[in-house]
Amino acid sequence: MGDIQFEIDGQTVTADPGMTVLEAAQKEGIYIPTLCHHEKLEPFGGCRLCVVEVEDRGWTKYVVSCVFPAANDIIVRTRSEKVDRLRKTIIELLMAHAPDAPDLVKLAREYNADPDRYERDASFCIHCGLCVRYCAEVAGKNALGFVDRGINKEISFVPEIAAQVCNDCKECFPLCPTSYLQAAFVYTQALSFPDAVKTGQSAGK
Amino acid sequence: MDIEKVDQIIDKHNGEPSNLLQIMLDIQSENNWLSKQALARVSEKLSVPLTRIQHIATFYKAFSLVPKGRHKVHICVGTACHVRGATRILDTVEDATGIKPGETDLDLKFSLETVNCLGCCALGPVMEVDGKVHGKMSPVKTAQALKTYE
What we know:
heterodimer, A: 205 residues, alpha+beta, Ubiquitin-like (UB roll), two-stranded antiparallel sheet, 34% helix, B: 150 residues, Glutaredoxin, 2 domains, four-stranded mixed β-sheet, 7 helices, 46% helix
């Protein structure tokens, strides 16, 4: 099986056409850190943490493996001095937003990242889009989405839809790497459909 | 804005989800803002999730999710206008209308915005109302010009 053959960390791997480098690596059990990747969802390329070094016909470039298609005869290196440095900076930037997220704390230890390198801007959401994409692609409910852009971008529930579907679903809750999603939900609930809380339908009751 | 008008705009664009942006722009120019009812109707008719429409409506500055006034007042605060006294013009407008940049007054007469350059620096300080440029403004002229709008 697999029409495409290439190399990851010195190991020859095969992939089917259309597969990404990350998928090929995961199939072979090669670890690449990710935050915004989910096997059920379309590739997003949001967190950039899965950056790898790709050598293609003598040229070395840095690509995001979750959206980079596997190709014949490329040489992929999942760790190198520069890859580690890139990941370290990405982690440090994300930690300015979510300093206590368990996934980030663990990664910071591994990559020797300084959580306080950048001034804290605790928005808690790191825009991985897992909740938004899961709701749209898997749950098919579109109860929440992104609003605004740039530094003001945030997730937002549509109260009318959330009031009807979220309490029975909550499948996106465990996906969130920072717990901001849960907070946003409780906030929306308190503002828009507090009756569900009073009657004990919410989680934790 | 009534739902029929929204339906007309959607029909004009054949109810194609790919024309979403154009439909939203048409509603915006017709109504001066995008009401929740209008967006819910668009979402329903085009089968586009409301979250997506919300994302687009908040992404572009051309859209407004709150009612806008009948007259859009833009005060240039670019460098050239600034040194020629744009802040005094802005103060005059704020005093006359009672609103700050980004706001709309209660009877929906004026919406005030600051802009960074209107491209006619030789006319500074510049005020633009509904696309009409008022150049070489003084506080007195500004107050008078605003009075001509109903």
